[in-house]
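[09:14] KT: can someone run the structure on this one? pasting the chain below
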Amino acid sequence: MPKIRESKFVIHEGSTGVTLSAGTANSDTKVWEYQVPDGMVLKIDKDSTLEVKDNGATESANSSRVKLQFLTPNQRRTEVIAECTYNDVKQNQDQNLKYHLGEAGQDPWLVPPRSLVQLLIKSSQALATTTTTVVLSAKSREVIE
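[09:31] RB: done, structure tokens below
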């Protein structure tokens, strides 16, 4: 039986597989997308965190809506992982204040290879790819021989 290795996995705007898009004001806009590579499953559980920071001249309103979701490889099914406000996910150095994506006792999301993990933001202003920082901390699961 194959062994599974699970390790901490952090994805940010400079990671391989990440695509950034400018956000449109007053519209749910995909500003960040990550494609899970072949041979890996992304595990998102109670220890996983999401941090977003709008570093533009005028920061997004705290009430701006943020949604993290994933699309299956055939893009026939979308699963919402989290819906919250920008204030909930603003980058914070205090580990106790970071936005956690799951709760104790909740089954983890297992995002299969070639799935697309997407971050959508609905803000009253446009977001630029050069000023938006996103960090998703999760776990990777890979089969090892």
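[09:33] KT: thanks! Residues 22-123 form a domain with the Jelly Rolls fold (CATH 2.60.120.1180).
[09:34] RB: yep, looked fine to me
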